[in-house]
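can u do me a favor
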């Protein structure tokens, strides 16, 4: 028999019984699967928004401008080389 204890759900604060071993592994944070799912969605949504903002910022600054300028100078260089 595994040892169990009562914990409060991290989403709805409802008390529920979970195995102590699971809790030590970082599991058993929620009373039900629906509580776990909605909590994870909230977290990943915030994370995705943060990543999108970060990606957008670095993309507009480095990615777009740099690759464009590189392509341009490369074409220019090739042209004058074949002309000579
Ligand atoms: Zn819950």
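np, heres the sequence
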């Amino acid at each position: 028999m595994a040892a169990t204890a009562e914990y409060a759900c991290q989403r709805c604060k409802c008390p529920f019984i979970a195995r102590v071993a699971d809790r030590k592994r970082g599991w058993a944070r929620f009373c039900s699967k629906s509580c776990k799912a909605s909590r994870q969605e909230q977290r990943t949504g915030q994370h995705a928004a943060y990543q999108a903002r970060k990606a957008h910022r670095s993309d507009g600054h480095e990615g777009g401008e740099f690759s464009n300028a590189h392509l341009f100078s490369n074409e220019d260089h090739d042209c004058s080389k074949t002309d000579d």
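The CA atoms of residues 5 and 47 lie 32 Å apart. hope that helps!!
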